[in-house]
Write a structure and sequence with these properties.
It contains four helices and three strands; from the N terminus they run αβαββαα. The protein is of the alpha+beta class. The longest helix has 14 residues.
Length: 155
């Protein structure tokens, strides 16, 4: 008897995939807002010493233009959500936030940002010395016009 053959992977043409494969493997399906904030916190912690984190917010209906145009022509209202994306250059995460959850998400997001603002560099400022009235430069005097006076101005 021969050993059993390893199972074959179904080809893309024959399989009916339930999830669309992303062309970029670092992009995953949108996370739940709480999971997104946890991952964002981890990104900030990884980039504390060196690196940056980019976060973008975008209004989105999460529908294609064709679907949106059909809904507009039918008179249906379109519910927009906030699409939030974050990346540290290596990993990308996304989430969508609805109208109902927006206030809570913004408050939590602000807390995460405040907690991780410690890695920012302080701005160098020049020392400002107190300037006394004697040290101030006098205002320049206005120059008198060098145009000759006419006879009407003289009289």
């Amino acid at each position: 008897m021969s050993p059993p053959a390893p199972p074959r992977k179904p080809s893309a043409a024959t399989s009916s995939s339930t999830s669309a494969a992303s062309p970029n493997p670092s992009i995953k399906a949108p996370l739940h807002p709480d999971s997104f904030l946890n991952e964002l916190t981890a990104m900030f912690e990884r980039s504390t010493e060196k690196g940056s984190v980019w976060v973008t917010f975008k209004r989105s209906s999460l529908k294609t233009k064709v679907q949106t145009n059909k809904m507009k022509s039918a008179g249906e209202s379109i519910e927009y959500k906030c699409l939030v994306r974050a990346t540290d250059g290596k990993k990308k995460i996304t989430t969508t936030v609805g109208v109902k959850d927006h206030q809570r998400f913004q408050a939590s997001y602000a807390t995460v940002l405040k907690a991780h603002m410690t890695a920012l560099k302080k701005r160098e400022r020049k020392d400002r010395k107190k300037v006394t009235d004697a040290d101030k430069k006098p205002a320049p005097k206005k120059k008198k016009s060098s145009t000759p006076k006419t006879s009407k101005e003289n009289s």
